[in-house]
Write a structure and sequence with these properties.
Elements: H1 2-15, H2 20-37, H3 44-50, H4 53-61, H5 69-81, H6 85-89, H7 92-101
Helix pairs in contact: 1-2, 1-7, 2-7, 3-5, 4-7
């Protein structure tokens, strides 16, 4: 479900340019809807992504200058396991923002 939510957030980012504040507001609904359906079913791999939220916040706030180990692991995991081409090709910043929207 996490990959689905990130795919939705990335797709929204590519469909129409939006500001960071509206990006979070727009994609948070997709993440919230999908996370409710998967309560209790988060796999260990999805936890890698969820645990990267703090690092993702630092990355976004520093405009990409601060890169934490958990964020790096989550970015690698998302690109290696996603069947969605948009996720595999998304920028680190787009994926970090999608992680924050979960």
């Amino acid at each position: 479900m996490i990959r689905f939510a990130i795919g939705c957030a990335i797709a929204l980012a590519f469909v129409a340019p939006v500001h960071a504040s509206s990006f979070a507001g727009t994609s948070a609904g997709a993440g919230s809807a999908s996370s409710g359906a998967s309560s209790g079913s988060t796999s260990g791999n999805d936890k890698v992504v969820l645990q990267a939220r703090e690092d993702a916040a630092g990355f976004v706030a520093s405009d990409g200058r601060i890169r934490g180990a958990r964020l790096e692991a989550a970015l690698r995991h998302l690109r290696e396991t996603s069947s969605d081409a948009a996720v595999r090709q998304a920028s680190d910043m787009a994926l970090a923002r999608a992680i924050l929207a979960l």
